[in-house]
Design a protein that fits this description.
This protein is mainly alpha-helical. The chain is built from 27 helices and eleven strands.
Length: 549
């Protein structure tokens, strides 16, 4: 019987319902001058779910059920989505694994008096007197708010038929299968003209999962309890505190790694890699490149009041290792004091860092680089390849003597079937051809085929004419492209859209344009990155949820 109870409760409480196709679309309410459309029910990401369980049960208990957590379907972006946390799909496998995890943790709690004390502050020895305070304390953690008497009674109602520690098993199991653990229901607040004003506890939960990806801590819950979180001053104080916590740095790291595709593995030794690397040991080099990119971003967000334009244009090197610094042509930075300055004609900011440019074998792919900038930095749609292409159409051209990578790739798409599509993005990739697949600046390209044969050198041509913000511009290479993007309204809008998707865990709709424009305007006004990233939680819309008809 125990197995059926939580699954039935989960299905009954899931809140799934069909939509009436003939229903009128309600007018989207506004808060502080921007529309706030209804958002889908938000599920915790798998990482959020694991961190939540670790806060409740501690590392030892969760380490013991790690195989069951790892068996959950991994979150992955789909369609126009970009971030893994945007994946809100729920399947039978999710429910089965949540069941298995809840059952394992419930059994552990029933057999471990110290764990029971952690969960409920009672029931080190199981007796009738301890069950209600135990259930109340556990629900407080699961719901991320104080439970009502009715909720405690409902949790205890099925437990009477069990004896001894089986009652603890039932309470923990049923609590962990409550939908409120896995979803942000946000249904306790008051109706205000088509909007639900979040309660203090709902706002605390929204803040903590936005910045930390885990439940609110005691101080945030105290601010919810005493009402100070619902004041402008109290909210700002908590946002500042959460933002300065190292957990927010980890969340921002996740955002930039997924957006900029920094989560690539190490370089892969092979004939082409070995020849192009020139004998350089590349073991672990990819990780050093990634850390240098994060150091640039961390400095702009936390250390000094840098703007988004500064991020795109800075010549400061944050390379800590000698080999990465030598790749840039500067001395290694010791972690304090002034950073070495990169050569002004060679690099400018984020897009010319090795962590963004490097490839697994040291070769370049201008199509991939160009599509990355057009789609992810400028947020313009790039048409997918048609389905009737020849079998080898998507295979990079083989390197031949006297033919640059740019010329070889351009020749591959010179036919009418490919030309129009590639006109969207290829030139952006050609502008970055002054950087090889290890992120090194070059004026001459070393030609190496896939077998590792050295075919000589050719001059690099990175001059292009391309479209930025709807206008044709002539660019001399990566530095000029970075300068153009630093002044681009499309690029500012794109950063705002990408962070919106990450923060709200969904792709934006037309009704979100006002809010995204509000953030983009702040970037155009030169707001530093740190205050800008706080801005999303301080806007009035963050305290509300639109009512879905």
């Amino acid at each position: 019987m125990l197995r059926a109870l939580p699954v039935l409760a989960l299905l009954l409480a899931s809140g799934c319902k069909g939509e009436d196709p003939d229903a009128e679309t309600p007018e989207t309410p506004e808060i502080a001058g921007v529309e706030v459309p209804p958002a889908p029910l938000a599920r915790l990401s798998v990482d959020d779910y694991e961190r939540t369980l670790r806060v409740i049960f501690g590392d030892d208990a969760i380490d013991a059920v790690q195989p069951q957590i790892d068996a959950l379907p991994q979150d992955a972006p789909e369609g126009e989505g970009l971030f893994s946390r945007d994946d809100q799909r729920t399947s039978q496998r999710h429910i089965d694994q949540h069941y298995a995890i809840a059952d394992a943790l419930a059994r552990a709690s029933a057999g471990d008096g110290a764990l029971r004390v952690r969960l409920g502050g009672a029931c080190e020895t199981v007796d009738d007197a301890c069950l209600q305070p135990f259930a109340t304390a556990l629900l407080d953690k699961v719901l991320r708010r104080p439970p009502t008497d009715a909720e405690v009674s409902a949790l205890l109602a099925p437990v009477g038929e069990f004896d001894g520690t089986d009652r603890v098993h039932a309470i923990v199991f049923l609590a962990l299968m409550k939908p409120e653990l896995v979803y942000h229901l946000e249904n306790q607040g008051s109706d205000e003209d088509g909007m639900v004003a979040l309660t203090g506890y709902e706002l605390a939960s929204r803040l903590s999962y936005h910045f930390w990806g885990e439940p609110p801590d005691a101080e945030l819950l105290d601010a919810a309890a005493d009402g100070s979180l619902l004041t402008d001053e109290g909210l700002r104080a908590q946002v500042d505190r959460l933002f300065d916590d190292p957990r927010t740095e980890l969340t921002l790291r996740e955002f930039f790694e997924e957006w900029l595709h920094l989560r690539r593995g190490d370089f892969l030794p092979g004939p082409r890699h070995d020849r192009l690397s020139g004998g350089m040991d590349t073991t672990g080099l990819s990780a050093e490149m990634r850390e240098e990119t994060h150091a640039l971003l961390y400095h702009a967000i936390y250390a000094e009041p840098h703007t988004w334009s500064d991020v795109l244009l800075t010549r400061e090197s944050f390379a800590r290792s000698d080999r990465l610094a030598s790749l840039y042509g500067v001395d290694a930075w010791d972690g304090s004091g002034a950073r070495p300055q990169l050569p002004p004609a060679e690099r400018a900011g984020l897009l010319t860092r090795a962590g963004v440019l490097a490839t697994s074998d040291g070769s370049t792919n201008p199509f991939r680089r160009g599509a990355f900038i057009r789609r992810l930095v400028l947020c313009e749609h790039v048409n997918p390849p048609p389905g009737n292409l020849p079998p080898d159409a998507l295979v990079p051209p083989e390197t031949t003597a006297s033919t640059s990578t740019r010329d070889a790739f351009a020749a591959k798409v010179e036919g009418a079937q490919c030309r129009d599509c590639h006109a969207q993005f290829s030139a952006l990739g050609y502008a970055m051809e002054s950087y090889d697949g290890f992120g090194r600046f070059r004026t001459r390209e070393q030609l190496v085929d896939s077998a590792g044969r050295d075919l000589g050198f050719v001059d690099v041509d990175a001059a292009v004419t391309t479209r930025i913000d709807g206008e044709e511009v002539a660019l001399a290479g990566g530095v000029a492209l970075s300068e153009q993007i630093a002044g681009s309204e499309d690029a500012r809008q794109c950063l705002a859209r990408q962070y919106f998707r990450f923060a709200h865990r969904r792709v934006e709709t037309g009704a979100d344009a006002g809010l995204i424009g509000h953030w983009s305007d702040a970037l155009a006004d030169g707001e530093p990155m740190g205050p800008w990233l706080r801005r999303i939680a301080l806007h009035a819309s963050f305290r509300y949820r639109a009512i879905e008809e």
